[in-house]
Amino acid sequence: MLRIFGMGGTERRVKSGEAAPDRRVASSGSGVLDAWTELLDQISRFLIDNRLPVTPKNLLAAHAAFSGGSLQLGRMIVQRQIAGEPITQEWLDAAIAQDMPYGDASAELEQIRQELDGSLERFGAVTSHARSNAGAYNTAMAEHVTKAEARVDGDVQALIEMTRKMLRRSQAVEAEMAKTEAEVVSLRRNLARAQRDAEIDHLTGLPNRRAFEAVYEREYAEARAAIEPLSVAFCDIDHFKRINDTHGHDVGDRVIQTISEMLAHISNDTCHVARHGGEEFVLLFRGLTPPEAHAKLDHVREKLAARSLVNRETEAPLGSVTFSGGVTSVFAHPDPRAALRAADEALYRAKEAGRNRIEIA
C-alpha cells in the first residue's frame, strides 16, 4: 500500500494512461531532509489535486495516510484513486470518521482523563486528611466539654451549650467529608472502567487499535531489552465488500465476529490480537520469529477456509470466506512504525498473489 504512495523505495501506482508523477525517492544518501520533502510533496499534491482546503484536519489526515500513521486511511485513499472516483471533502470526512473512531480528540481526551484522575487523587487525599483531622478535633472537643460540664455550672453552662452546637456542626462536616471521599472513590472507579471501555472494540470484544498501540510500545521496549524476537502481522478479510453488498452489513459484522473469535483463540500473554479497523486485524507475536508467527496465523487461515459459513437469516451460503496476511520481524526495520508498514506491504503482496495466503516481508 505504501509503495502505491511512493514510499518504501518505489513509485506511486497510477491509473492507466496517466503520466507518472515526478517523484524523488529518498535513498540512503539523501538523508532525512529528502524524506521530509517527499512527504510534504505527497501531502500538498493530494490536497491540491483533489481541491481540498488546507485545514488542520485535512493536513493531519493526509499526514497520517502518507506517513504510515494510518494504514487504513491510506488504503482507502488508494482504493478510491484506483477506482477513478473523486476524493471530495465529504468523502474524506467520512473516511476519517471510519478510520479514526476516536477522532482527533483522543489525545486531548487522554490528557483530560489524566488531569481529572490526578485532581481526584489530590482531592481524595485532602478530604481524607481533613476528615481525619476533623475527627480528632471532634473527639478532643467532646472530651473537654464533658470535663468542663462536670466542673462548672451557671453562666459557663451557656458557653458549654454553644460549644456543643459547634461540635455538632463539626461532626456534620466530618460526615459530609466521609460521604464526599466515598464519592471520589466511586468516581475514580467509574473513570477507570470508562478508560477500559474506550480500549475495547465493541463489535468483537477485542482490543482496539488504540489499545494495541500501547501494547506494541510496551512489548517493543521489553523484547528489545530481553533480546527476544518480536513479529507483527496484519490480516484482512478477502472480498469483504462483496460480502456486505451481497448479504448485508449485519452478516458482514457476524463474519468479522467469527474471524475475531478464531484469532482470539491464539491470543495469550505473548500473542496480542486487536481489531485495527474495518475488516482488518493486527497481531503481535512476542518471542516468535516471522516463520513461527506465519505458521501460527496460517493455521487459523486454513481453519477458516475449511469452514462453510451461511447466512443465518436466509440459510444462503456465503461462499468461501478467507483472509490474507503479512508478517514481518519488528527488529528488522528502523522503528516500530516501519515494521507496521512492511507487514502491510506483505499483506498486499498476499492480496496480489491471489488472496487466502500469508506472506512474510
Task: Produce the secondary structure layout.
Layout: H1 31-49, H2 56-67, H3 71-82, H4 89-99, H5 106-151, H6 156-197, H7 209-226, E1 230-237, H8 240-247, H9 249-264, E2 271-277, E3 280-286, H10 290-306, E4 309-310, E5 317-319, E6 323-329, H11 336-352, E7 358-360
Parallel strand pairs: 6-7
Antiparallel strand pairs: 1-3, 1-6, 2-3, 4-5
Give me some keywords for this one.
361 residues, Alpha-Beta Plaits, 3 domains, five-stranded mixed β-sheet, two-stranded antiparallel ribbon, 60% helix, 10% strand, disordered N terminus
Describe the structure.
The chain is an alpha+beta fold. It has three domains: 1-100, no CATH class; 106-197; 209-360, Alpha-Beta Plaits (2-Layer Sandwich). The protein has helices at residues 31-49, 56-67, 71-82, 89-99, 106-151, 156-197, 209-226, 240-247, 249-264, 290-306, 336-352, and strands at 230-237, 271-277, 280-286, 309-310, 317-319, 323-329, 358-360. A hairpin with a 2-residue loop joins strand 2 and strand 3. The longest helix has 46 residues, at 106-151. The radius of gyration is 30 Å and the shape is elongated. The model is unreliable at 1-30 and 101-105 (pLDDT under 50).
